[in-house]
Specification:
single chain, about 300 residues, twelve-stranded antiparallel beta sheet, about 35% strand, disordered N terminus
Length: about 300
């Protein structure tokens, strides 16, 4: 974290998230490019959280499209680590506005250098074929412990940060990976929801918050498979690319089940796939992420 003492005096986590997602100072140029400015949440390791920049980029793109066009797919590459103490600039290029689809390119930059590059697609609502996979039968979120309850007896800065500074309520179905790995598997499921009320009339905000939240646990199936808790000394993990497909309307401030699996890991990279379901069992989003995972060796 860039300044742990500052985090202790920061606004409540959910309130702070909403401030960060409220991009400002729009600048338009003659070629249709628009620039939005944003700030960052405090972090644990002194780097901007990738899910935050991804979510802000989705919002920047959405603010340049017609309200009747809904974001349905986004794919981003993370190019450099970000500085949580420096402002972020989100440059949005209008690539296409067709009869049904719109495409946007967003580049997030700091200090004149790109840290994320994303392309997003938007579509008018249309009728068509409709099917979806079924949600697995798992315990509900009310029957699972919170992160704070799991870590209440752990006197550690990371544990306090996970317990107190996250604006997303995350509850693992089964064991969590904060301190150890009880179930060494390449699959897992977690319940998630924003820890506060999101706007009723801003579906783009709900999609941005889901994208933000998905980055918390996407690499955990890889870590779980190889018996690597987050507390592993010297462990380094970072997102390389992150994609989201939105299928149906949802609220990110209501419980969503996030099922995840890792089909492969090799070359210091791990791939995870995930699906978000409502409590009623409706599939609302699919996520894919590849991340760099470096494990300390005896030579390090």
């Amino acid at each position: 974290m860039s300044d742990p003492s500052a985090a202790e005096h920061a606004p409540a986590p959910f309130e702070h998230l909403m401030r960060v997602m409220d991009l400002r100072s729009t600048v338009s140029s003659g070629d249709g490019t628009q620039v939005f400015m944003g700030d960052s949440l405090p972090t644990l390791h002194g780097r901007v959280f990738g899910g935050q920049v991804f979510g802000q980029s989705l919002l920047a793109a959405a603010r340049t499209t017609d309200a009747d066009r809904r974001g349905h797919s986004m794919h981003a590459y993370f190019l450099r680590p970000g500085d949580p103490d420096a402002p972020l600039a989100f440059t949005v290029d209008v690539l296409r506005d067709g009869r049904s689809f719109s495409a946007r390119r967003v580049q997030a930059s700091q200090k004149g250098e790109p840290i994320l590059s994303m392309i997003a697609s938007y579509q008018r609502d249309e009728a068509g074929v409709d099917h979806a996979i079924a949600m697995p039968d798992v315990p509900g979120p009310d029957d699972l412990p919170t992160t704070a309850e799991l870590l209440k007896d752990v006197d550690d800065p990371a544990a306090r940060f996970w317990s107190e500074r996250r604006p997303i309520d995350v509850r693992h179905v089964g064991s969590a990976l904060y301190l150890d790995v009880e179930d060494q598997s390449s699959t897992q499921a977690v319940w998630m929801r924003a820890d506060g009320r999101l706007p009723d009339d801003d579906p783009a905000m709900h999609k941005a918050v889901l994208a933000y939240a998905s980055d918390f646990t996407m690499l955990e199936p890889v870590l779980r498979r190889h018996d690597l808790p987050w507390s592993t000394p010297g462990l380094r993990a970072a997102t390389v690319d992150h994609a989201v497909w939105y299928h149906r309307p949802f609220r990110a401030d209501e419980w969503l089940l996030f099922t995840q699996s890792s089909p492969s890991a090799s070359g210091a990279r791990g791939l995870s796939l995930g699906h978000f379901f409502t409590r009623e069992g409706e599939l609302v989003a699919t996520v894919a992420q590849e991340g760099m995972i470096r494990v300390p060796t005896s030579d390090d």
